[in-house]
Design brief:
Blueprint (H helix, E strand, L loop, with lengths): L10 H19 L7 H12 L3 E2 H7 L4 H13 L3 E5 L7 E5 L1 H22 L4 H16 L11
Antiparallel strand pairs: 1-3, 2-3
Length: about 150
């Protein structure tokens, strides 16, 4: 007889559910901005690395480079980022956060911090440290399909 498979208690299922919870909390906390977690991550990275190329930026936020163009396009339409061809290689697109995008990203940082606090609220201090250590091991000790350590 085959062993029972307890799907609801598998690591993959629980990680997916935790991700769903995180996104739901993010959408609640940032409702006034009409922004997705990936859009926020892109804006946040451009604050730190203005003029980053589109492919590198996608890797830095762990997002598919092929799909990032449409996300970046939506931010560009909102006037939050500007995209220009690299003068040395016109195939490369360089990105900058606009002043309006910077204001929005900075305003969203408090909301993003509240998401993290709400997500971790059920855990005590040691459990929070342990969870971060375990998640870091899972994320950064696997290879992504491109052969680089998980971005």
């Amino acid at each position: 007889m085959a062993k029972s498979f307890d799907f609801h208690n598998t690591p993959g299922h629980l990680v997916r559910r935790a991700h769903q919870r995180t996104v739901a909390l993010f959408m609640e906390e940032t409702a006034g901005f009409d922004v997705t977690p990936v859009q926020f991550a892109i804006l946040h990275e451009l604050l730190a690395q203005p003029g980053e190329d589109q492919v590198t930026l996608a890797a830095r936020v762990a997002f598919d480079a092929a799909t990032s163009g449409s996300v970046i396009g939506r931010l560009e339409k909102r006037g939050w980022i500007r995209r220009e061809p690299d003068t040395r290689d016109r195939r490369r697109k360089l990105l900058w956060i606009t002043p309006e995008g910077e204001v929005a990203a900075l305003q969203m940082r408090d909301a993003a911090q509240r998401v993290q606090e709400r997500l971790m609220a059920p855990l005590n201090a040691q459990e929070r440290v342990d969870l971060m250590s375990i998640l870091s091991k899972v994320v950064y000790n696997h290879q992504d399909p491109a052969g680089t350590s998980g971005a």
